[in-house]
Amino acid sequence: GETDYSGVKVLFTRTAPAVYLDSVTTDAAGVFSVVVEQGVYTIGYRKDGFLPITLVNRPVYGDLTLADTTMEAAGLSGSLSGVLAAGTYKVSGDITVASGDSLRMMPGVRLRFKSGLRFTVAGRLVAEGTVTDSVVFTAHDTTQRWNGVVFSGSTSSASRFSYGRVEFSQAGGIIVQSSGVTLTHLLVQKNTGAGGISISGGTPTLDQLVITDNVNADGGGGISVRSVSLQRITNSVITRNAASSPESGGGIYCRDGGVDLSGVVLSWNVMTMGRGSALTVTGSSGQVKMDNVQ
Fold first, then answer.
1. Is residue 223 a contact partner of residue 233, using CB atoms and an 8 Å limit?
2. Which of 287, 293, 194, 200 shows the shortest CA–CA distance to 241?
3. What's the pLDDT tens digit per position in 33-67?
4. Residues 140, 113: contact at Cβ < 8 Å?
5. CA atoms of 67 and 86, how far apart (whole Å)
6. Angle at the Cα of 78 from the Cα atoms of 75 and 80, rounded to 5 degrees
7. What is the mean predicted confidence (pLDDT) over 198-217?
8. 247/257 Cα distance (integer angstroms)
9. 154 φ, ψ (degrees, to nearest 5)
10. Is the CB of residue 103 less than 8 Å from the CB of residue 128?
């Protein structure tokens, strides 16, 4: 959508035979011309608000015309706080809500994460969509997955995430580490690595969830619970998830703790090895409570 291509700084750094530096700035049409000494160069494009581009090992021993290049607008990165208005945002670096900070996401926020990036919440996140206008965490490109959202430590326990969707992570959709975060009315789907939701410590609230089509290379394709005395899961559907650990639990896997299920549907979850296609509880202090479970 840009019409003014001026202000792009083009940096020429000669790498052979000896160091030589020069630079030029583009005009409104995105055109530039510069005379540099002969050699092999690294050529960089830089402009505030855009991701940098670097071309390496470019020989310059005569007239050279560089191909048109499109710079990608920079997205969210670093520490976030305050209010994030409705809209679609590209995430171009790891993002965090730091301990002591607070971030509110309005209905209609859609975060599209670049490959390998993670959202870590150590402070307070309030991300509450509506029935018709969800808050969505997804991959910018579904063939290059992101690394999920992590609620880390007791300082994130005041967080609330509801009426949202988490999908296409390669390291688990939602990871809960010693947090009491409230997760309600969420669709958690098509995540790999650590499956849909992975819990280690803490007592998160899990209610009105649909957890489907997730895969865990360990146990718990839908939900994995470790070192939680009794994790309560209510009014949720856990379906079509898969796990491949010898102690699988395609739907739910619990180790060194227990689960309390009420109004939960477990269906069509599978394992590629091991036991417990729907539910596996193992380790010390294992217990299961069930009420109206299908």
1. yes
2. 194
3. 999 999 999 999 999 988 899 999 999 999 999 99
4. yes
5. 36
6. 90
7. 95
8. 15
9. -65, -25
10. no
